Amino acid sequence: MEMTPLADRFGRVATDLRVSLTDRCNLRCEYCMPAEGLDWLPTEDVLSDDEVVRLVTIGVERLGIREVRFTGGEPLVRRGLVGIVARTHALGVETSLTTNGLGLARTAAALADAGLDRVNVSIDSIRPETFAAVTRRDRLRDVVEGLAAAQDAGLGPVKLNAVLLRGVNDGQAPELLRWAIEHGYQLRFIEQMPLDAQHGWSRAEMVTADEIQRLLEKEFVLEPAEEPRGSAPAELFTVDGGPATVGIIASVSRPFCGDCDRVRLTADGQVRNCLFAREESDLRAAMRSGASDEELAQRWVTAMAGKRAGHGIDDPTFLQPDRPMSAIGG
Ligand code: SAM
Ligand code: SF4
Prior knowledge:
About 30% of the residues lie in helices and about 15% in strands. The protein is an alpha/beta fold. The chain has a single domain, classed as TIM Barrel, CATH 3.20.20.70. The strands form two sheets. Strands 9-10-11-8-7-6-5-4-3-12-13-14 form a twelve-stranded mixed β-sheet. Strands 1-2 form a two-stranded antiparallel sheet. Helix 1 packs parallel to helix 2 (about 80-90), helix 2 (about 80-90) runs parallel beside helix 3 and helix 3 (about 105-115) runs parallel beside helix 5. The two termini are about 30 Å apart. The chain binds S-adenosylmethionine and iron/sulfur cluster (SF4). S-adenosylmethionine binds near residues 161, 163, 196 and 326.
């Protein structure tokens, strides 16, 4: 089959597909959604398992996708997850998952058997009360158990994602890193981005990558790690001479849009060429009205061609996307 790369006008080629499997979630992280949750997508709008797999297959077989990461919302609340993972793995691509870890203790082994390669688990604090303050749920224990199960199941190296909120958990950055290293997990801090449903983000409140580095350097010696960064968003540092490392993802203060190789598919079948895109391309409607694989691939190529050079968060004309991170797929 002929392969058409997902190229844009700036010479970037997308090979890394992020697929949101649901916009629903069992946590309510402050930086992501309001306490009462959101108006979830109507069930009939969410792609079926077969529809997800059809689009992923088109991405892999016709458009050069080499890596597929499932996310959400919370992907572990999606019933068909294990089957979707197995069918994706069978396409011969790297398959991974970004999850909050709730329920991972129960599913890690089945996911590994289905061919899942790796997991990224979000954890913003190792203190139960702070975890509950950030996520509005007292579920730290489930996450910790999920992490252990993932490691036991061979879904490693297990990566941790943490977002720091000023005055809430920023002071705990070093202890979170210490805990991660002790358990053999690779921690990465992510700058808070303007993607919350409540539009509460402010540049001044955000804990910047430089601040995160300084917070960690109060207790550790960090040195830039030598591995080439490529399109990986995390700036990697060795901790106290290594081999342990920590990543800092400066999405806002040092954007890496020029190296971006990502494309996103929302749970309701819309292609987004960027987290911050203001346009989407509707593959679901096309698919449900009978479009062929070739037609869907063509639409996808067109959607990518219009990708902007950068997210422009620092631009005075920046507008937050209409959909929050949980609906786009983080
Ligand atoms: N529910 C899963 C989880 O939390 O890992 C997957 C979806 S979540 C939207 C994916 C990642 O986005 C998480 O690591 C989360 O911490 C991060 N995230 C959510 N809102 C964010 C924001 N406003 N800024 C930066 N990262 C954010
Ligand atoms: Fe749920 Fe993930 Fe958003 Fe937290 S960051 S509310 S776990 S989707």
